[in-house]
Amino acid sequence: MAVVVAEDLTMRYRVPVRDGGLAAALASVVRRRYRDVDAVRRVSFEIAPGEIVGFIGPNGAGKTTTLKMLAGLLHPTSGQLRVLGFTPGQRKAPFLKRIALIRGSQSVGGSQELTVLDALDYQRLLYDVTPGDYRQALAELTGLLDLGPLLQRQLRALSLGERMRTGLALALLYRPRVLFLDEPTLGLDVTATAVIRRFLAGHAARTGATILLTSHYMADVESLCRRLILIDHGRVRYDGPLRELAARLTPYKLVRVSAAGATRPDFAAAGEIVEHADGRWVLRVPRERVARVTAALLTSLDVADLAVEEPPLENVIDHAYRDGLA
Amino acid sequence: MRKLARLFATGFSMSLRRTLTYRTNLLFDVALAVAGLLSSLATVLLVFARTDHLAGWTRPETFVLVGTYQLLTGVKAAFLDPNLAWFPTRGIREGTLDTYLLQPAPSLFLASLATAAPLALVEAVLGLGVVGLGAYGHPPGPLGIAAWLLLVLAGAAVTWALGVLLACLAFWAPRLQLDVFYNATWQLARYPVGIYRRPLRLLLTYVIPLALIATTPATALLREPQPATLLTATVAAATATALATATWRLGLRRYTGATS
Amino acid sequence: MRRILRLTALRVRRQFLDWSGAWWFTITLVANESLGPLAGLFVWSAVFPGDPRVVSYFAALIAVQIMTASYENHTFSETVYQGTVSHELLQPQPVVIGPMGENLAIRLWMTLFGLPPAVLAGFLLGATYRRADLLLALPALAGAAVLRFLYTWILALTAFWTERVHAVVTFGGMLVALLGGAVAPVSLLPGPWRAVAQVLPFHAMLGLPADIATGAVTGPAAVAALGRGLAWIVAFTVLAAVVWRAGARRYTVVGA
């Protein structure tokens, strides 16, 4: 049974518009003009239990709007949406107790002078967590997220990484079946990001929870998500495995060769030279020719080292954002 | 219902813990509450240095009125202002409302009563003391006290409803911040409504029932409680509460884009 | 000195334009300042029914309140709390120019929106004034405007030491209301308090212009009061400089 079923989701806003100048400003007092903005256009997808799905897309593409619709914060203008069998927009208590939305920009809400333990206690009451479950969940989360030193500290005194970990603990305390993460690693340093990623991967494996995350960091998406949904201008442009997207968008791979004594003409037949420094060369080679090219290079040159790489995902996505998908 | 009561108690306990974190601020807030009360009392004393009656109220009677006003001001400052004040900014722009919408409890309850400023209750307690001081000479009977209590509760309900209605404005006109205006108008309830000219008096009794804050309860405590007044006040409180709840729901639908 | 004036004028103009978008908020501020004295008008009209001086006094008081409103705890203290005052500290001009300019801009807008209705209300309620009194009240009004700003500015500077600057300013406002003639005209205060109030700066900040406008304080008494007000302006200016220096030093040593 699918966890999320979205069919032809559309979100349309009416925004007031006004020309520049004083005359138009005065006119707008009497008669307001509006324009319809389609933030999300006929988006459809299904998500199965236990999947970790990445939502990516340029700023303003409609990712956060879609996420808000899934969490019940927004009613879609049209279309069908069922999450865990509920209609999110009705915001029924049983639904709310099974989902969690964590925003990287604001991972911990509420009064900032409370301690972490106070906040967890309040969350327990709010979500009707039984004392036994609470103790167990607290012990687990404290261990996994290293919350020990944080429990007695005030929320306002936490660093960004600590806030994110606390936010995760607050959300997972009541064991939601679906997690919506909006830019979870925003602004975090390398270590903190690694911790969060490791935790999320482990959590999904341990509990079978379904995770939807949006991120601008390709590394998040690469390490966590097997499936990617690319949203641009409110529409789904791609929905499928990550590897295929790379393959579709960039029909080439990168071949790095270290060969002392090699010169430019040696690579002419191989492919396009992207970089060259100190006997190290980087070539862009069409995918279907990679095997042949590497074999040729290995026999014809004195190769010290050779590696074949996928083009960096950043470039792939950047390509998709700028030029769109074919 | 029980869950709401527990949430309210926990929210209050959390707010108390939060307040006790800073001890100097504690001192400031208590000092301010005391100063506010003294200022109100000074006003009364100044007026009654020159006259015996203020729109038909004697000095001890005016004390009862001022005390009732302080009681409700304290309750409002403790339970309502921390949540509903500056709602367009704090609630909507800063995303607090979204957080409440995601939680499995009624959003109106969370948005209006989730946190508290417990120290403002000092004002309320002091106000109660002043009421006692004023009523000392002619202790009222149990019927009077019951009527006063009922009217104070009705006043609290109306205050809550007005606060919610004001906050709901943010759903339709997000740039409008009327908190300053509301608090200024609230000041008018500090005196017996009889001092105002007729049009203003009618406005404050029937349209924006601020008279219910102090004048009406004090009247009930000091003179014969009129059943008609009690009934009207209860009906007014119930109507205001229903109106506020309905407007909130309507505003929320607009906020979440629900058109159907 | 000329440079300071020019910078201030520039700041005023910029803030004036900034605030043009918040005209409705200005109206709520006007209401905030007017409703206190309005209640006072009704209270004292009930105590002295039919006395025209009461109405004239409080109507004038409303006008004074609108034209001398000061919100430095909002315009300045918040920048200390948020840490953004650092921007101002790095600029090659005295920091006080910012709040001063904003204060003048806000007062300009409030006067624009608030004075006409106040004058109308006064007229409808039956306030009357003599032209000579009104003219004499003008320097008193100017003095009150300066003094009120300095007073609120000094109180707002306590933000360098305490988190409760709004409580401090509210308390300061209470003093002005009680001893400056908002709760009751100073002449109605009991004996010893009246003497104290005449010496303190609060009367010059609020009630004095209204008292002069209604003719309650005339001739040599008015001149003496204006002189006292001037002395307070000097005292407050010195105090403001001292407190600012201490506060800025504390801020740069202790940090945000």
Q: What can be said about this structure in brief?
A:
Chain A has helices at residues 22-30, 63-71, 93-96, 116-126, 131-145, 160-172, 190-207, 218-224, 242-249, 290-300, 313-323, and strands at residues 4-17, 33-47, 52-56, 78-83, 99-103, 178-182, 210-214, 227-232, 235-241, 252-258, 272-277, 280-286, 305-309. Chain A is α/β, with parallel strands linked by helices.
Describe the structure.
The complex is a heterotrimer of chains A (326), B (260) and C (256). Chain A is built from eleven helices and 13 strands. Helices cover 36% and strands 29% of the residues of chain A. In chain A, strand 6, helix 7 and strand 7 form a beta-alpha-beta unit. By secondary structure, chain B is mainly alpha-helical. In chain B, helix 2 runs antiparallel to helix 3 and helix 8 runs antiparallel to helix 11. The longest helix of chain B is centred in the middle third of the chain and has 31 residues. In chain C, helix 2 packs across helix 7. Chain C is globular, with a radius of gyration of 19 Å. The chains are: A alpha/beta (326), B mainly alpha (260), C mainly alpha (256). At the A-B interface, helix 3, strand 5 and helix 4 of A face helix 1 and helix 5 of B.
The chain pair forming the largest interface, with residue counts per chain, is: B-C, 37 and 34 residues
**Inertia-based shape of chain B:** globular
SS element count, helices of chain C: 13
Secondary-structure element string of chain C = HHHHHHHHHHHHH
